[in-house]
Amino acid sequence: MTAQAIAETVFDILYLSFALFSGLIMAAKGRSPMVRRAGWMAALLGAGDSFHLVPRSYALWTNGLEANAAALGFGKFVTSITMTVFYLILYYIWRDRYRIRGRRGLTGTMWLLSALRIALCLLPQNQWLAYRPPLLPGILRNVPFAIMGILVIVMFAREAKEHSDPVFRFMPLAVGLSFGFYLPVVLFSGIAPVVGVLMIPKTLAYVWIVRMCWQLYRQPNGRPATI
């Protein structure tokens, strides 16, 4: 038993419980399609991350990360797919929140980026089950993912400011922080494992996103009168 194993396990239990329970409550009891969609998004976040975090906790309590590389790698693969869908759902929440109509080009771009990201994740060159997979595929598969994040940041920043949105006014910051903490891990964790600690504030950024969605659930119709 180590301090790292205890700290990570407690943190992961709290995080996964919050994402899953709040997501399922919003999905089941949400008073609008937007809130229910936000609930499924949060639940997907928790379910997807559990594929990586549960094996990681198990590895820390048993024979170490390297001995459980295959399970951890498969978990990272699943999480990569679910996070792509997470941002696609967030795009549709943006459309619902601000009553966006049309924008077929933007919608097509988000779907294309999602499909490209998932296709890149499926390539065998990723070597998901290896303890130290190659860096280049990791960079390539995150390019469309990062573009999706940038688009989401710009979209929410523009509309939240225009509508003085009290719920999503910090959504651009939360998404920006999540990517800001995540990308250094992709680039440098192989040569400097300590960089992996940035996954903690990255996870807290996602908690913040889910917390904003929870505010929608707490409102009468999922949308204040000013929006």
TrEMBL record:
Keyword Transmembrane helix carried by entry: yes
Domain of life: Bacteria
Membrane-spanning residues: 6-26, 74-94, 138-158, 170-188
Keyword annotations: Membrane, Transmembrane, Transmembrane helix
Name the record gives this protein: Uncharacterized protein
